[in-house]
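Tokens in:
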């Protein structure tokens, strides 16, 4: 389980020496109370750490310089309790490398109508102090998140918490390593991309490793380790009788366990946060790694099939963003449609590799033939995903930029048995409707590989895209094709 409490947002309060030591002491006291309340909020998954009030260009610069190099700091929250002349912030903001959230709040919730005087006005100047600061951030052309409201309001705390999740995912990408085991599926376009530009833009690296590198780890797995892992399978999943010890297909389960143990060691020793493989490049492996991939994704690794490293990285980012929330984030593929009038549906799945964290109940471990890859019958977890609010997200390389496409959908409970489809089964309704949603996705150049999320909002992906400095296209309940096509045309001009 990922623990986001290891991360910190630094809480910086701006003021100046003009008001005297008594006022500055009250500013510091109030700022500590605000930071402590946000830190204690269950709606914010990371630590909120108060820093001394900054009153000069030097204090601002040095604090932001420290934020850049503090490994636990994933972002900075700024608040102008009083007026803080914004020219003081120029040098500091120019060197800031961490995400920025501007909290436009005020210590007092209400105006004390009968007692208010100029002392109160001088102390509680956020209404125009934050505007002074906001101008400078805009003048510097810096993207940031602006959150408005009273600091005790649960809605404000939720908004800060959702942004914090995006900042945590961005931090997780910095220096992350993703392994491509083999190459891309041949002749496929959308799984390709500029890995050099990705490392420049996103901070993670993608490198290729021969399948033989992995096979060496698989062959080194001991029988005793396989026995222990098979016992875990028996406890965690429903298992057909012929797959249990003594059954005529138990050897397939043991081989799946051998692959999982070898792959897990390969990823651990390489310090990888995600990986890809392709069924066209599995020389030396007995079966396609289905069960292994499903279980590794459940543990937090990013994955996508056919060498699709962009989706693998996005799966990992979404897992970090959704850590600790009900529901899951998983690699997905739009597979086939149900065009029944009045009940249009999309059936999502993949050959084997869909994270069973999506499952509505206990997954079932099964072994079946696979008519692709030319290997022995692979083990996999078979399940139906639950329903509810969900979204699909894809990261695509448009040549001159990366684009994040987010499509809000409604997950639907699977009511049919599907006895001849022994894979993960995920059903959803496209929003605002099938015709509009699918056409919008295709106009935007959306990939057939996605992250399917049961616990993230489009607004959180928008925060993530803003932090990354990339384009985002949002498809949802209010999408209209003419407006979306104009947006895509405008975006082309903007990014030129």
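Residues out:
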């Amino acid at each position: 389980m990922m623990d986001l409490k290891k991360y910190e947002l630094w809480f910086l309060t701006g003021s100046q020496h003009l008001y005297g030591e008594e006022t500055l002491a009250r500013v510091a006291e109030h700022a500590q109370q605000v930071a402590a309340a946000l830190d204690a909020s269950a709606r914010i998954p990371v630590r909120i750490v108060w820093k001394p009030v900054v009153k000069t260009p030097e204090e601002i610069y040095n604090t932001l310089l420290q934020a850049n190099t503090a490994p636990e700091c994933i972002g900075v929250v700024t608040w102008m309790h009083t007026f803080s002349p914004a020219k003081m912030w120029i040098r500091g903001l120019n060197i800031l490398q961490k995400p920025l959230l501007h909290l436009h709040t005020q210590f007092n919730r209400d105006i004390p109508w009968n007692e208010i005087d100029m002392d109160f006005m001088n102390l509680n100047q956020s209404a125009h102090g934050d505007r002074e600061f906001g101008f400078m951030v805009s003048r510097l052309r810096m993207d940031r998140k602006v959150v408005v409201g009273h600091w005790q309001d649960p809605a404000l705390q939720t908004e800060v918490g959702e942004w914090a999740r995006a900042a945590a995912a961005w931090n997780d990408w910095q220096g992350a390593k993703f392994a491509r085991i083999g190459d891309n599926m041949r002749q496929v376009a959308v799984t390709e991309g500029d890995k050099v530009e990705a490392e420049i833009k996103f901070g993670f690296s993608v490198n290729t490793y021969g399948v033989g590198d992995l096979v060496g780890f698989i062959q080194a797995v001991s029988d005793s380790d396989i026995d222990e892992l098979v016992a875990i399978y028996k406890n965690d999943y429903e298992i057909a009788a012929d797959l249990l010890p003594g059954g005529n297909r138990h050897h397939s389960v043991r081989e799946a366990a051998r692959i999982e143990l070898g792959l897990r060691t390969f990823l651990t020793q390489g310090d990888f946060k995600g990986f890809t493989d392709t069924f066209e490049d599995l020389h030396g492996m007995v079966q396609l790694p289905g069960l292994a991939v499903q279980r590794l994704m459940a543990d937090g690794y990013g994955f996508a099939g056919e060498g699709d490293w962009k989706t693998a990285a996005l799966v990992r980012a979404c897992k970090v963003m959704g850590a600790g929330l009900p529901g899951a984030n998983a690699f997905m593929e739009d597979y086939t449609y149900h065009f029944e009038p009045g009940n249009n549906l999309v059936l999502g799945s993949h050959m084997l590799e869909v994270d069973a964290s999506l499952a509505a109940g206990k997954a079932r471990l099964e072994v079946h033939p696979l008519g692709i890859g030319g290997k022995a019958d692979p083990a996999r977890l078979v399940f139906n995903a639950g329903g509810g609010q969900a979204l699909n997200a894809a990261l695509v390389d448009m040549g001159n930029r990366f684009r994040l496409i987010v499509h809000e959908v409604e997950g639907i409970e699977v009511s049919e048995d599907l006895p001849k489809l022994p894979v993960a089964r995920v059903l959803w309704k496209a929003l605002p409707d099938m015709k509009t949603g699918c056409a919008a996705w295709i106009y935007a150049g959306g990939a057939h590989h996605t992250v399917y999320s049961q616990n993230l909002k489009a607004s959180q992906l928008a925060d993530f895209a803003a932090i990354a400095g990339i384009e985002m296209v949002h498809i949802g309940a209010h999408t209209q094709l003419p407006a979306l096509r104009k947006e895509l045309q405008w975006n082309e001009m903007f990014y030129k």
